[in-house]
Design goal:
Length: 157
Amino acid sequence: MVTGDAVTAPARASDSLGTWARRYYYANRRAVETLLKVHGIGSTQWLVLRHLAAAGPTAQRDLGSVIEAERAALSGIVSTLVGKGLVEQTISPADQRQRELTLTGSGRELLDGLPDPFAQVRAVALAGIDPADIDAAIQVIERAIAQVNAHDFGRSE
């Protein structure tokens, strides 16, 4: 709760903005995973396929930041997609130490047959909610993230 310039904790920790943002994220993620499960892929795999379809061949080292995945997790995701024949992994012509990823014909076919699961879930989640309320929620979360990222929290010590 905000009173003047002071921010007080909600009556229950379960009522905090962070808790509700996390609950929304996980509810969305579960729904997306459910939609994709019947197609044999997960949400992060879908994000890789979608990126490769849009951007074309991509250096594997660059993909982690695009889909916000750690390097170790990404390696497993790529191996799974290669094993399923949805992605091809080759040596980069620009740097022989690097791997380049390309969407295969099977990957393109799978992706083309799937509606955007995130859009489907978002349509359900936000149905009937005033767009101004959605914009206000986004602004609050964006500002909170920016303020946390800008704060020192003792990093300079």
